[in-house]
What we know:
By secondary structure, the protein is mostly helical. The protein contains two helices and no strands. The radius of gyration is 23 Å and the shape is elongated.
Amino acid sequence: MSKSKKKSPAPIKVGQKKSAQAATVMSAERQHMISEAAYFLAEQRGFSPGDELGDWLEAESQINASLSQ
């Protein structure tokens, strides 16, 4: 009877996996920061309806500028 050798699975590229996870976390964190900033912009204008997209875009611009420094 011959013993068959089990093939070990291909190595996982840890650096790539961690990079993807870090990017996801950063993306989620960035999204949260934009959401909060947009809320405060809406609050400043008294939550009047009709400019939610403008609030989001302004908040996104502010957060992008802050993160790029």
